[in-house]
UniProtKB/TrEMBL annotation:
The gene is mtnB. Keywords: Amino-acid biosynthesis, Lyase, Metal-binding, Methionine biosynthesis, Zinc. Its EC number is 4.2.1.109. Its cofactor is Zn(2+). InterPro entries: Aldolase_II/adducin_N, Aldolase_II/adducin_N_sf, MethylthioRu-1-P_deHdtase_MtnB. Residues 16-207 form the Class II aldolase/adducin N-terminal domain. This is Methylthioribulose-1-phosphate dehydratase.
Length: 214
């Protein structure tokens, strides 16, 4: 399906969902500076052709403006004539969509995901076990143990995107850039939000548990 054939109602619905999520996350302080980015896929999907709405680059996410979002294709190129630039990390979103076929991806920078990812960065994954909010990731095994992938954070976004296929675990709906932030995804905005909130609870739990042992 070409971008022009996607129903206007679907496009407007995606923008409204992004606006609501942006407002909620901004209220939590999850977008320090102009960091972080959000996206929602629209229209039909194939790994070779898809479209998504994504946050514009360099915007203050604590306020709403008509220039907060734009639509891009599977290569991160704007679908319409615009002066807006997609978030610098749009290529990472595109790669995750291509590999998973998910419906939404949310990326935030927090103190806890930065510290924990730096602490476990050399291991390539953050281990977590027996934490209640692992269930929020759809993993209901008793005393479940998971490993959340961590990849290096390079200045060149294409270098990061190249690492995603090897690092991605289909059972874990998230991946962390070392000392940078997490990308969490889901079938839709509701699920991606649930996953992101669960990851952030897990990171804080790990941090506070380690602090108690000192």
């Amino acid at each position: 399906m070409s971008f022009t054939n996607i129903p206007l109602e679907e496009k407007l619905g995606a923008l409204e969902e992004l606006r609501k999520v942006k407002e909620q996350f901004a209220a939590r302080g999850w977008f320090p500076g102009t960091s972080g980015n959000l996206s929602i896929r629209v229209g039909e999907f194939s790994p070779e052709s898809f479209h998504f709405a994504v946050t514009s680059s360099g915007k203050d996410k604590s306020v709403h403006t008509p220039e907060d979002f734009l639509f891009v294709d599977q290569q991160g190129r704007p679908c319409e004539v615009t002066s807006l630039k997609p978030s610098a990390e749009t290529l990472i979103h595109a790669e995750i969509y291509r590999l998973t076929g998910c419906g939404a991806i949310f990326h935030v920078h927090t103190i806890y995901n930065n510290i924990i990812s730096e602490g476990y960065g050399d291991k390539g994954a953050i281990p977590a076990q027996g934490i209640e909010l692992i269930k929020g990731l759809g993993i209901w095994e008793e005393n479940a143990r998971i490993e959340i992938p961590v990849v290096p954070n390079y200045a060149e976004i294409p270098r990061i995107a190249e690492l995603i296929p090897a690092a991605l675990n289909p059972d874990i709906p998230g991946i962390v850039l070392r000392n940078h932030g997490i990308y969490a995804w889901g079938a839709n905005a509701f699920e991606a939000k649930r996953h992101l909130e669960s990851f952030e609870f897990i990171f804080e739990h790990i941090y506070r548990s380690l602090a108690l042992r000192k």
